[in-house]
Amino acid sequence: MHLGPDISDPAAPAISFDQFLAVDIRIGTIVKAEPFPEARKPAYKLSIDFGPTLGTKRSSAQITTHYTPEELVGRQVAAVVNFPPRQIGKFMSEVLTVGFPDQNCAVVLFSPDRPVPNGARLF
Fold first, then answer.
1. Which residues contact 56 (CB under 8 A, 6 or more apart)?
2. What domains does the chain contain, in order, with CATH numbers?
3. Between the CA of residue 59 and those of 9, 34, 89, 104, what are the distances in Å?
């Protein structure tokens, strides 16, 4: 399964700093994680708390290879919060949880190595 660019792909074309700033990536804490059996590919339905300004948002994430719902709750993750919501079956995914592919293209979540406030923006 190929989710997107991997280590064998060349670097993406250069962008401006303003284009980088247009992608709003924030940290949130997973407060709920549950199986999503209706998804075409194995996934979980996540509820992620992004703090008082953004609130709790939902995400469908194909992260079932390395994570169980129980170990996800309480974990901080990074997500793009300014993409339009995307309907996935009967579920509305509001943010894109981000990660990197392992050697088998299974997603490994991207998260800070120390706790940071929910809603903190990547810069």
1. 31, 47, 48, 49, 50
2. 27-109 (2.40.50.140)
3. 27, 11, 13, 23
What's the average pLDDT block by block, 10 residues per block, for the chain (123 residues)?
Answer: 62 92 96 94 96 97 96 98 94 96 94 96 93
> Which of 7, 15, 94 lies closest to 47 in space, CA to CA?
94
Among residues 34, 56, 30, the alpha carbon closest in space to that of 45 is found at: 34
- 3-state helix, strand and coil shares in percent for the chain, rounded to the nearest 5: 10, 35, 55
Element (H, E) at 25: strand 25-35
- The predicted model scores a pTM of 0.90
